[in-house]
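Whether sequence alone determines local backbone shape is best considered at the level of individual chains. When preparing material for the folding task, we compiled for one chain both its residues and its backbone structure tokens. No coordinates are needed to read the tokens, only the vocabulary itself. For completeness, the protein is quoted in full, as a sequence line and a line of structure tokens:
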Amino acid sequence: MTPSELPPIDTPALLIDLDVVDRNLERMQEKANNYGVALRPHIKTHKIPELAQLQMRIGARGITAAKVSEAEVMAAAGIKNIFIANQIVTKEKLHRLAALSKKVSISIGLDSVAAARKLSDVFAASGLTWEERSGTLSGCSYLALSQVHGHLHSCRSGLWCRFSPGGRGNQQV
């Protein structure tokens, strides 16, 4: 189809060359496979559930979202393994995270003992548990976390955290 045959398009408009998208996604997945790493692409550049589903079909382990609302949209579209890259600091969003964790596998990063306490309180009130995966907290030491660990009532092991549907945990990310 030539440009003159295309219907007029009001701007701004998003136009996608699906052949280029497919080629780029396959190339990136191939690189991840060649290096033996699991790909978890960030959806912040497209925010399109259909593209996230395509990334999953091609081989991505899961997706990365910037915030709870993006994770909710992706979960509603059938994405089952989501990492939220930014810290979640409000109780309202932590309650939404707890609800979402009953449906899909969610991972988040914690950056402080205060954040771990908030997370623990919300999950305990929801009857859910969470588990520590690895790493150290920026701005404080692992020792500081370990000192409060026994008081984090819903923490099963408490930095990179993973929530599985029903609060089961103990699965590979």
Observations:
- The CA atoms of residues 98 and 126 lie 7 Å apart.
- The beta strands are 63-65, 81-84, 105-109, 131-132, 160-163.
- Residues 18-35 form the longest helix (18 residues).
- Helices lie at 18-35, 49-58, 68-76, 91-101, 113-125, 142-149.
